[in-house]
């Protein structure tokens, strides 16, 4: 055989040996990687969960497609932007002159006036709590009463001066003051959402009640606990007769009623259950109807966790940063309307998702004003109500 052919055969054999060697190295690398991943999974499963989830047989969510009060529509799809100065206007209220007030997650509280034709003017900063103002309502004296999730229950006078009314109850901190309503006698009813002190996926997965309904008496300056054991206590609203107060339990899709007068005084029951999503804030209009912002429609994965404590406990081991998407609001705007008897009389939707993450709906002067929270669309919106 000529030398050139011998060299060619040897060269080919060398290339083949090199390729086989590379494939062996690659197989060993892949096998090692798989073993490492398998070991990681085993360790992850063996590590104890930071929570002990409670099982809950979650009722099937109401259908948004079938005929009924939850059925899809486009009533919110034509929403008009009022102002985008507050990016996350959690709650909305109005003063006696009809000016709109709302807070933002950076601590600022904005005031928006309207011209003679009802057009919104440029938003002005009214006050800055240096916290996170959520609920807002004016008292009889013109002070803006605020529930701030970082600062507690606050009072802001017309000049913008801030006073802390309550940040403790029974010698313990008010962990997460959220929403409020004020009675004719000046009593302030407000929610302390959770002793977790923050919104966390672990609390959803754990499925245990950590919230409270509180009352502040302006005469004695004392705060008392009315209800404990609430599943993420949120929106608060008094009935028109002030014989009961409602509090939203977001994580159990229900509105709970606490009786203030009558034979049931001091007791509680369920006002509305199995809502089509996570109820947030509650407002009452002049007709006595309640409007409930639904932050997000039901999340099937969350309902599955409630039915399967092992799955919930396993998910709680993951870093919060990886779980934020699991509880993000669906891009579907939703508001529910209830009668004073707890009957769902209608729902308002934006299935397009231009307006979503709804926290508040306020029926005022011919419009339904909509607020949102971080994770949802930004700014205050409004929809013209049918006459």
- The chain-level mean pLDDT equals 91
Total strands: the figure is: 26
Assign the CATH class: Mainly Beta
CATH homologous superfamily placement:
TolB, C-terminal domain
Oligomer: single chain
Q: What fraction of the residues are assigned to beta strands by DSSP? A: 35-45%
> How many domains comprise the coordinates?
1
**Structural class label:** alpha+beta
**Percentage of residues in helical conformation:** 10-25%
CATH topology: Neuraminidase
Q: Report low-confidence residues grouped into runs of 5 or more.
A: none
User: Order of strands across the widest beta sheet?
Assistant: 1-26-25-24
Describe the global form.
globular
Question: What radius of gyration results from the CA coordinates?
Answer: 27 Å
What composes the largest sheet?
4 strands, antiparallel
Q: What do you see in this structure?
A:
- The protein has one domain: 6 Propeller (Neuraminidase).
- The protein is built from five helices and 26 strands.
- It is globular and about 95 Å long.
- The longest helix is centred in the N-terminal third of the chain and has 44 residues.
- β22 and β23 form a beta hairpin.
- The protein has 387 residues and is of the alpha+beta class.
